[in-house]
């Protein structure tokens, strides 16, 4: 009987010992510093999926962390680098809400702008992503003109303006093809007024000459032809407008 009692006590101690060790393993907390360093290493190694998990754990367990803003930056970049653009945008928005003035604010605007920029479709598609990218890059350039990301954003904005101008031109040409010149006027005027640095300006001016020629509004046709000739005297579009107005002049005699 004594042996049996000893055996029970020994088994109880053994089980308690195993349970204690298991508990230590299961409930061992990882420090804020360890999580942050782990997340950084995962980002640096390109393991973005695991980085997001680690950084999210850091967010949840240490909301008052000194590294909280940097955690959101790394998390936004991880989503962006892994083509998870919607998640990247949401993370940036969270960051900007909590840290509107921060050493990384300009970078986060850049990440948000690029998340839209990388989803831009051709001019035949809806341009929602293009317009959103334009908005974010303009904020970046206006608020942080000296930022190292601002110069890149300016180049992106030039490309974006060409896409948006191209979209307007595409619609304007369509209206001309279906014999709705009045509907095309606003499209071409929008290009001339709002996208003056794009490659479409000479054609837009010519199209306005063409539209007003069709409508029989001589003064406006001549006015736009003059603007085209003054700014782009060697342009093929100016030669076409000159030929068009010369033809009209001959017909009226």
TrEMBL record:
Its main location: membrane. InterPro entries: BamD, BamD-like, TPR-like_helical_dom_sf. Pfam families: YfiO (PF13525). Residues 31-221 form the Outer membrane lipoprotein BamD-like domain. The keyword Signal applies. GO terms for biological process: Gram-negative-bacterium-type cell outer membrane assembly; protein insertion into membrane. One of its GO terms (cellular component) is cell outer membrane. Keywords: Cell outer membrane, Membrane, Signal. It comes from the Bacteria. It is found in: Cell outer membrane. Belongs to the BamD family. Part of the outer membrane protein assembly complex, which is involved in assembly and insertion of beta-barrel proteins into the outer membrane. Part of the Bam complex. This is Outer membrane protein assembly factor BamD. It comes from Candidatus Aquarickettsia rohweri. The lineage of its organism: Bacteria, Pseudomonadati, Pseudomonadota, Alphaproteobacteria, Rickettsiales.
């Amino acid at each position: 009987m004594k042996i049996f009692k000893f055996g029970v006590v020994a088994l109880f101690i053994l089980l308690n010992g195993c349970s204690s060790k298991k508990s230590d393993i299961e409930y061992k907390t990882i420090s804020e510093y360890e999580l942050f360093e782990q997340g950084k290493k995962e980002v640096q190694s390109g393991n973005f999926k695991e980085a997001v998990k680690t950084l999210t754990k850091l967010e949840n367990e240490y909301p008052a962390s000194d590294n909280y803003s940097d955690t959101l930056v790394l998390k936004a970049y991880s989503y962006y680098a892994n083509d998870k653009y919607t998640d990247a945008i949401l993370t940036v928005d969270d960051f900007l809400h909590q840290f509107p003035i921060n050493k990384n604010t300009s970078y986060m605007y850049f990440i948000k702008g690029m998340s839209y920029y990388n989803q831009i479709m051709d001019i035949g598609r809806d341009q929602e992503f293009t317009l959103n990218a334009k908005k974010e890059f303009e904020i970046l350039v206006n608020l942080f003109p000296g930022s190292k990301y601002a110069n890149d954003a300016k180049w992106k904005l030039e490309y974006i303006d060409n896409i948006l101008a191209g979209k307007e031109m595409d619609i304007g040409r369509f209206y001309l093809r279906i014999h709705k010149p009045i509907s095309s006027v606003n499209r071409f005027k929008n290009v001339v007024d709002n996208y003056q640095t794009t490659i479409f300006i000479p054609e837009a001016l010519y199209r306005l000459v063409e539209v007003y020629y069709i409508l029989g509004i001589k003064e406006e046709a001549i006015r736009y032809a003059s603007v085209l000739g003054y700014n782009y005297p060697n342009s093929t579009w100016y030669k076409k407008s000159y030929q068009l107005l010369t033809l009209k002049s001959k017909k009226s005699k």
